[in-house]
Amino acid sequence: MISILNYKFQNPTFLKEALLHPSKKKNINFQRMEFLGDKILSFELSTTLFKKYPNFTEGDLSNMLSDLASAATINELVNTYIKKYIQYTGDINEKIIVDTFEAIIGAIYLDGGDYKKIIKKLWIKKFFFIENSKKNVKNLLQEIAQKKKYNLTYEYEKINNLFYTTVKMNNHIAKGFGISKKISSREAAKKLLEEIAIEITHY
């Protein structure tokens, strides 16, 4: 079996087809799986938004979906996981990465795999920050530390007119820097939140 995105394919042919971009070789199966994966991704994100935000209007949900399913977001979330495996000709770009990811999701579905789990793991941080978008990141981190009874500490250092902050909580460490303590500590807190989002978020 071969794997990608921590999923092991029962039928490796599905993955091979999903990674063979048409720029490399004409591949109708790639385009069919891309079509399928695009619809699956949109459905899963739409369903999650619908269930998590019962008071949001159709317009609110559409705007959030547009952001969550945008090429920029998909590229940000999956680039490091799949880029090196794609077979293509020419210069790789955002569209190739997005199309390939959608083909992989289609391939996982056809293979009988848990595509929902993969989408959840990749998008969970995005949903976490949507839910807490109006909160100050340092206050949010403090709330989590108090609720979980974690020890939360900030350490500061100034080097060449820049402030460097190290924040530690429950064996997690993140660093930030900026022209002030406020900026550097906020950056560090945000990075730590991104690191622990999967642990504390219920999808």
Identify the notable features of this structure and list them briefly.
single chain; 203 residues; alpha+beta; Ribonuclease iii, N-terminal Endonuclease Domain, Chain A; Double Stranded RNA Binding Domain; 2 domains; three-stranded antiparallel beta sheet; two-stranded antiparallel ribbon; 8 helices; 5 strands; 60% helix; globular
The CATH topology of the largest domain is Ribonuclease iii, N-terminal Endonuclease Domain, Chain A
Main-sheet strand order equals 3-4-5
Q: How do the SSEs run, as a string of H and E?
A: EEHHHHHHHEEEH
CATH architecture of the largest domain: Orthogonal Bundle
Please give the CATH class of the largest domain: Mainly Alpha
Query: What's the CATH superfamily of the largest domain, by name?
Result: Ribonuclease III domain
Given the structure, what is the number of helices? 8
Q: What is the chains' assembly state?
A: single chain
The proportion of residues forming helix, as a percent range, comes to: 55-70%
Give a written overview of the molecule.
26% of the residues are buried. The chain has a three-stranded antiparallel beta sheet with strand order 3-4-5. The chain has 203 residues and is an alpha+beta fold. It has eight helices and five strands, in the order ββαααααααβββα. The chain starts with a strand and ends with a helix. It is 60% helix and 13% strand. The longest helix has 25 residues, at 28-52. A hairpin with a 2-residue loop joins strand 1 and strand 2 (7-8). It folds into two domains: 3-132, Ribonuclease iii, N-terminal Endonuclease Domain, Chain A (Orthogonal Bundle); 137-201, Double Stranded RNA Binding Domain (2-Layer Sandwich), CATH 3.30.160. It has helices at residues 12-19, 28-52, 58-68, 71-82, 94-110, 115-131, 137-148, 181-200; strands at residues 3-4, 7-8, 152-159, 162-169, 172-178.
